[in-house]
Give the backbone structure.
Amino acid sequence: MTLVQPSDIGQTTGPKYDWPAQIPPENVTVVIPTLNEEGGIGTVLEQTRKAGFTNILVIDGGSRDNTVAIARSFGVSVVLQPGTGKAAAVDGAVSLVRTPYLGFIDADGTYDPEDFHKMLMYAPSADMVIGSRVLNKNGKAPFVAGHGMVNRLFTRLFNWIYDSKLTDILSGIRVCNTETLRGIRFRSRGFGIEEELSAQILVEGGKIVEVPVEFRERLGKPKLRYRDGYHILMTLFRLAYELNPLLFFLPLGIILLLPGLGILAFVAYWAIFNNAMVFHSGWALAGLGLVLVGVQLAGFSVLSFLMKRIEYRQLRAIRKLKTDSSISKV
């Protein structure tokens, strides 16, 4: 896994369009997932076009307001997503887009499409470029009360599970290699898609780059609720279970093993120093059961880790063969 955090980005003075992007805008499709975003979709589309991007795809999740009508008034492609949730929007976009790169941005106006230009500087050498609100040094990001703390908590948990150094896994603006996304089988169904994208790429040995981006006040009514944080947390643990079983099962095994050893030590101490024959007591059986289950979970975690490691090596080898093949055709 390779992770880059270019801390010097954003320090250059002058117009934003002076960024020496290596990828022309016509090679990028800007995807905007929407669901009742009539307050911000018009502004986002206007700013996206002003930034020089003409390939724009709006994936709508069944809006009941004027979101679709506003988007169509700009003459952009509007598609009803298959299924529900933001993950379905991403999955649908991947199946439709034909450009080499995808740029995802929220429809609520919190992100500036102009930031895609500096993100594209790093896209040729990365599987995904994330726009980090945390790395932005121009001012404090206007997180909704409590959301900043939750974002930091989830990011730290994510970094612990996947041994990474990301700063903003829940960012709503990112640039992805289209071919990389086509190799991902999405499991999330809601807001957890951001962390799943990062997790899937990291465990397969992919490269993620973070660059600082602007973050502004939301246009329209807030939709993110605290129960969505619960779903994101559950997604994080589920992905750990599926993608990194060592860090999921090993702590569980230790949690059971240590009390079991403590109970057995107490039983042995009582039997030796008090001449009490309690080897077949309930405490002894409980301690032995906890130790056995704990050892089994620890062993299972190591075995699962080794199997996943073989799987990821195969996936990396396949990806390398595809990359070498595409380079040889150029």
